[in-house]
Structures are given as C-alpha cells and as structure tokens.
Write a structure and sequence with these properties.
A: about 400 residues; Peroxisomal Thiolase, Chain A, domain 1; 2 domains; ten-stranded mixed beta sheet; B: mainly alpha
C-alpha cells in the first residue's frame, strides 16, 4: 500500500465567519459563534430562525457578470474559495492547466437556491425563472466551473455523499495523486442550501436546534445549518518540490467506510472503521493523534455514536485526546463541512493551537471526551478530522504538521 | 437530566394544567405512531410500542401541526425512559412555547 505523503499547499474558505481561511480560523480559535438570525425571504412559515449564513456575499465582487449568471450560490462560493487557495499555493496558471490536475468539489445538494427560486416562480410566481437553471443546479456545476476557469482537463467529478462529500472529495483526490494519476488537485466542498423549503425539510427531521448548537453537552438539542465552501490544493510531494513550494501540512491519511445499516441512524462500527483506516493509512497509531476535529453536530444521533467510536478507536486515550467541533461556530455546512473543518484542523497544526469546543454546559456522561473550553497552545504533530453522513457514509482525514 | 438515573421512571401520567392536553398528546401518539390507543400507558416504552426514530419524527410533526410547538428530537425527549416521561417532555416544551408566545407582545 502506498503511503506517500500528499502536500497541502493552499487553503480557501467562505463561511459564516466571512471570506477567507483566516476569518474562519480566527472564529474557530477564538470560539466566536457566527450563528445569527436568518435573513431569508419567503421564510415566514419557518420555526427555526437561526443559521450560519454567509452574510453580505455579493458574487459580483468576485466574478464577472457572464460567469455569475451561470453560477448558483454554491458555485460562487466554490469559485471564491478556490481562488484564495490557488493564490496561497503560488501555483502558476500554466502549471495548473492540463490533464495532470484534478478538480473535485463535493456538495451534498448542489444548486438548491436555483431550484428553490425556480420552483417558487413556476408554481407561485410569473412562471419565468433562470434560463440557465439546469447548468446552475447540477451538483457537478462547481467542479465544472473550476475546471473551465482554470483549464483543468484531468479527472473532474463531484462527490456527493451528504455530510461526507468534502472529506471524500479530498480523500479520493489524495488517492489519485498517490496512484500517480495526477500531480495535483483542486479539492474541497461547497454548500448553499439555506432556503425556506430546505430549512423546513430539516425541521421535519427534528434535528435542528431552535437556539444553540451544543455538541456533546447533556442539554444539547440539535444542530444548526450553515453554508459556505472550503477549498484545498493538494500536490504530490515531488510536484510541490519541483516548483519549490513549501507544504502548509501533509495530508497523510484517508479512511472511509459505509455503515450499510440505516439512512439516518449512525453506527459506532462504521465511524470507528473510518477513523482507524485513516490513521493506519497515515502510517500512524491512535497514540500519534494530538487533536480530533469532531463531526460533532449537537444531535443525540451523532454525538453519542461519535464519542463511542472515538473510545473504541483510541481506548483509554479517547478520554484524553483534545476534541472540538467547528459546528457551533459556523453551523453544519453539510457538503462543505469536511473541507472547512479540515482547514480548521490544518490551521490548528500550523498555529500550534487547539481551537476550543464552545457552548458546552455539562458534558453528557455518555460522551467521555476531553473538550477544551478555551483555546490551548500545544505543539501538534498529527490531527484527525471526522465526517459522518446521513446514509451511513463515513470519512476521516489525517493531517500531519509540515515541519 | 443526570438525576434521572438515580430516580426510577414515573408510573403515572404527568399532571398537566390542562387535563385535556394529556388526551390530545396521547391521541397524536396513537394517530401518528400508528399505535393502538389502549396500549399507550405511562409505563409503555417506545421499544415496547415498536416506535422507531422515524415514528417519533411523525409524532413530533403531529405535535407541531396540532399543538403548534416545534420540539427537537434531541434535548429531553431523547432521554425519556417511558411514555410518561415522553408525554411530560412534550407537554413541558408546549407549555414553554406557549409561555414564550404569550410574552412576545410585550
């Protein structure tokens, strides 16, 4: 089995914290929740009025009008996050162009705003809606736009596995690089589905909190929706070295599994299998993991399952290794969450800082985890990021400090 | 919530300010959960009634439609050990929401 390291050379983010990976990291490090009252036209019937929305996002500030017309909000987010990540990587457009680059931008849903607006107009409005609805709403739209904009002609596709979409996108890209199929990849996830009908659909499942997301807290009452995009530039060690690029960190391991059980109920066996596979893939043992960025949704369904899975993988150390969730800060960004949370995990390594786990009042006794309430300065060598999706698809990524 | 583990589960229905509210909640459980009303006793559990998580979702939708209260799956409901506690947590959430709504005009 190949265990070649894959270099991470660029990060980009759009989230409730604003535009940019630095804004995301600052919010996570400072434990500043970005959840606020939703600004949602046609949302009068909703019971849940809070979310991690990207505020004051104006695609026209980033994209020219011809491109903008073709892009749903989720694709606009992806464009902006990818641009930032590429800028940081310092990679030239010539190096990027061609068949040795892959683009894989995951999403749980795709162009939900386009679907929602079009459906509304068709049934209740003028009947006229966006002429480009089809290419805007297709889940592969963000990937295709990244391919077109940057001349990427290698493997381009979209992974959609609900909340594991971004983590699987990043993981499978790392496998393509290790296998020598491509030298580099533009990867991540994007989601923009805070629309009235989507929020209502989530309300039906009764997993949304009406007030605060408190993962692993005894008094937790659900998750909060978020939106955004996370982008990561991956390169083979050789390709990065050839252009003199210094890795931010190494993507060292990827593990994925499917519960093959239930469409909404998670499974300890599936979650622990993904974590174990990622750690083994990195050539590490659980003892080497210094920090876990948990899936941590704030639902009873996830939290107890994830805590038990961590205990199963880490044994006695499961109660010691620091764990925090980014979801109380930016909400659950679904198909983007794996990328945005990996960015937080990478910045934790580069800043030698464990971001705090906020909003806990009393830790649920069923979740025996070390949840630091304040940021902790600590040298970190390796960290794990978890995504456990509806449908039972699990994905974990291991990143290792560059030094 | 942590106290529950040391106290045994109640064997009687909760006493509600509006006694009809108890009947309404039980009706919703019977209708939405597709359970025979006679089997819904304080000591019954979700398991003995064969109610799975999706049935609970349906019941909570019925609660929202008929009683006007949004109740998450999580929070207190998730730790209810029998129907007496399950009904009590629905009634409590409903009373809280009604109280909040009543306070709103101020």
């Amino acid at each position: 089995m190949s265990s070649a390291r894959v270099a991470i050379t660029g990060l980009g983010a759009v989230s409730a914290a604003g535009i940019g990976a630095p804004a995301l990291w600052a919010a996570a490090r400072d434990g500043q929740s970005q959840i606020s009252t939703t600004d949602l036209p046609r949302g009068e019937r909703l019971r849940i009025r809070i979310a991690g929305q990207v505020r004051d996002f104006d695609g026209a500030s980033y994209l020219d009008e011809a491109v903008l017309r073709r892009c749903d909000r989720f694709t606009q987010f992806a464009h902006v996050a990818v641009e930032e990540a590429l800028l940081q990587s310092g990679i030239s457009s010539d190096e990027l162009r061609g068949p040795r680059t892959a683009a894989i931008i995951g999403t749980g849903i795709g162009g939900m705003n386009t679907i929602d607006d079009g459906t509304y107009e068709y049934y209740a409005g003028s009947g006229k809606f966006n002429m480009l609805a089809i290419p805007r709403l297709m889940p592969s739209s963000a990937t295709s736009h990244v391919s077109i904009t940057h001349g990427v002609t290698g493997p381009c596709f979209t992974v959609t596995s609900a909340c594991s979409s971004a983590s699987q996108s990043i993981g499978v890209a790392a496998q393509l690089i290790r296998a020598g199929i491509v030298d580099r990849a533009i990867v991540g996830g994007s989601e923009a589905c805070i629309t009235p009908t989507t929020v209502r659909a989530w309300e039906f499942l009764r997993v949304l909190s009406p007030d605060t997301c408190r993962p692993f807290s005894a008094d937790r009452n659900g998750m909060i929706l978020g939106e955004g995009a996370g982008a990561v530039i991956l390169e083979s060690e050789a390709a990065a070295a050839a252009r003199g690029a210094k890795p931010i960190a190494w993507l060292a391991g990827y593990g994925t599994s499917s519960d093959a059980r239930d469409i909404v109920q998670p499974d300890v066996g599936g979650a622990s299998a993904a974590m174990t596979a990622a750690i083994e893939d990195a050539g590490l043992t659980p003892d080497d993991i210094d920090y876990i960025n948990a899936h941590g949704t704030g639902t009873v369904l996830n939290d107890v399952n994830e805590a038990e899975a961590i205990a199963r993988v880490f044994g006695a150390k499961g109660a010691d290794v620091p764990v925090s969730s980014t979801k109380p800060v930016i909400g659950h960004t679904l198909g983007a969450s794996g990328a945005l949370e990996l960015i937080v995990t990478i910045r934790a390594l580069t800043e030698s800082t464990i971001p705090p786990h906020i909003n806990v009042t009393n830790v649920d006794p069923k979740c025996r985890l070390n949840l630091p309430r304040e940021a902790v300065a600590a040298p970190l060598k390796a960290a794990l990021s978890n995504s456990f999706a509806f449908g039972g698809i699990n994905a974990s990524l291991v990143v290792v400090a560059a030094a | 919530m942590t106290e529950q583990s040391t106290v045994s589960a109640p064997t009687e229905w909760p006493v509600l300010d509006d006694p009809q509210q108890l009947e309404r909640i039980i009706d919703i459980i019977a209708e939405e959960g597709k359970v025979e009303r006679s089997k819904i006793t304080p000591e019954a559990t979700l398991e003995t009634l064969g109610l799975e998580s999706m049935d609970v979702v349906m019941i909570l939708m019925g609660v929202e439609d008929k009683l006007g209260t949004y109740i998450p799956m999580d929070a207190e409901l998730a730790s209810a050990r029998n129907l007496a506690e399950f009904v009590a947590s629905i009634a409590k959430a409903g009373a809280g929401a009604a109280g909040a709504a009543a306070e709103k005009p101020e």
